[in-house]
Amino acid sequence: MISANDLSPAELAALLHFHADAGVEWLLEEEAVDRFAEFEAMKAARRPAAQSQQERPTAEERPFPVERQTSPRPSAAARPAPASGPQPAIPDGEAVQQARFVAEAARSLSELKTAIEAFNGCNLKHSARSTIFASGDAESRIMVIGSAPSAEDDREGTPFSGKSGQLFDKMLAAIGLSRSGVLLTQVIPWRPPGNRAASPAEMDICRPFIERQIALAEPQAILLLGNFAARFFFGENDTIHGLRGRWREIAVAERVIPAIASLHPQDLLTAPVNKRLAWNDLLAFQAKLNSLSLLRN
Hints:
Layout: H1 9-21, H2 35-54, H3 93-105, H4 109-118, H5 123-127, E1 135-136, E2 142-146, H6 151-156, H7 162-174, E3 183-186, H8 200-217, E4 221-225, H9 227-234, H10 240-243, E5 248-252, E6 255-262, H11 265-270, H12 275-291
Parallel strand pairs: 2-3, 2-4, 4-6
Antiparallel strand pairs: 1-3, 5-6
Helix pairs in contact: 1-7, 3-8
Keywords: 4Fe-4S, DNA damage, DNA repair, Hydrolase, Iron, Iron-sulfur, Metal-binding
Region (Disordered): 46-91
Domain Uracil-DNA glycosylase-like: 133-283
């Protein structure tokens, strides 16, 4: 249990905004409410409506069947030819080697950004609008890594945009941080079409880019947000609920860096009840930063 007496006015205000965004109107209720039972009752109420839609009369049962008007199919010569466009690159071992070469050749984050923007060996780049690269303070030694760009990130060209980005800003403020005071980036620099998961080949191609970002930034602590980011670095297939909340070590460029995983802000918008878990993770991250003297007072 967190006591309000242990929080500064700024932290308390950020925490209240955090709960308000979750839809919390009352901190305490006189009687316990079983939310699971409410959810099951809602599902049961929807079943009769769904069944009635499935029991619509067939064409033979309708009193006035409607005749479908058909038009003659065009001949093969009259059919328009399919539109041809640029064929995307095929991920393979050669593309991975090329990604490693250009990543290792970069001697600064700005050089790495230029190299990634010029790289054409990954399918994802051909369907994305923007290349999402690290932003914020590269000298902070604090790094936050998300999973993959969202549609808002792709439109804005920056990580953690839109509503999830607004929530993310409040999460940082609750522990005395801001997006301008840490280095933000994503595991994958391009948004997968339809927000699908990146394929293993695409992950292999993008791995040298994110690892080089870490090597150049030299963070002393990393916060991973989202299931994909946690699995990518921890090498496990558990869900974020099984991977979050525990400090682990990840090895990048002959350096071992402490990292902790938590839920992505988008996950919290979808399931606000999990904000209490994210808050505990943020407090653990804050404690680690304090022990490393990385928080600026």
